[in-house]
Amino acid sequence: MQLQLPSSHELQQALEQAGYPEQRARTLAARSGRNLGSLLRLLQNLSVLPEWAQHTDAAELTIAAVLGSWTDNSEADHAIVEGLSGKAYGEWIRTMREIAVLPSTPLIQRDGNWKFVMRYEGWYTLGARIFDEHLDRIFAGHSSCIAAE
User: Fold this and answer.
1) What is the mean pLDDT of residues 120-142?
2) How far apart are CA 10 and CA 7, in angstroms?
3) Average pLDDT for the chain
4) Residue 57: per-residue pLDDT
5) Mean pLDDT, residues 49-65 taken together
6) Cys staple from 107: which of 59, 80, 100, 125, with CB 3.0 to 4.6 Å?
7) Contact 42, 50 (CB under 8 A)
8) pLDDT score, position 40
9) Does the predicted model carry a pTM greater than 0.90?
10) Helix, strand, or coil here: 107?
11) What is the percent of the chain with per-residue pLDDT over 90, rounded to a whole number?
C-alpha cells in the first residue's frame, strides 16, 4: 500500500498549525511540490543537494525540469526531447526511468505521462546546469514552431 502525498493545502494547514505565518506556510507548501523530503530541506534551509540532483545524469534531468511534463506516446514530445537533449528519446528516457526510482525523486510517471513535480527545487538545484546550448536549442525549436504556423 502506498501512502498518498498530502495536498499543498494540507501542508499549508499543518505548517500554520505548527506556528508558521500564513504566507510563509503557503510558500513552503507550494515550493515543496507536495514532497516531504523537499519540505524538510526547505524548512531546514539546507543547501545540500538532494540525491537526485547529485546523480551523474542530473544534467539530463535539467531537460525534464525545462519540459515540466511530457508523454511517452507523443511524437511531438519525443521530437522536443531529442532537440533539447541531442539524444534519441529512447536513450534519454532510460535515464529518466533510472532517476524516477531514486529517493525523493522529482519525477512521477503514470500511464506514460511524466511530470517534474518539484518545480521550485528543480530550478533551484538544476538551474546552474542550463547552458547557452540549451537555450539555443529551445529558441531554435520555438522558431521552427513559429515558422510552421
Assistant:
1) 66
2) 5
3) 79
4) 75
5) 75
6) 100
7) no
8) 79
9) no
10) strand
11) 20
Percent of the chain with pLDDT over 70: 75
Q: Which three cell numbers stand for residue 44?
A: 531546514
Decide if 5 contacts 34 (C-beta within 8 A).
Answer: yes
With b meaning 16 or more CB within 10 Å and e meaning fewer, what string describes 102-131? beebbbbeeeeebbbbbeebbbbbbeeebe
Go through the chain and tell me how many residues it has: 149
* Residue 21 phi, psi dihedral angles, 5° rounding: -60, 150
Burial class (CB in 10 A: 0-12, 13-18, 19+), 80: buried
Q: Which alpha helices (DSSP H) does 57-102 contain, by range?
A: 58-67, 75-85, 89-100
Q: The C-alpha cell of 24 is what?
A: 510563509
Q: Which residue has the cell 531529442?
A: 82
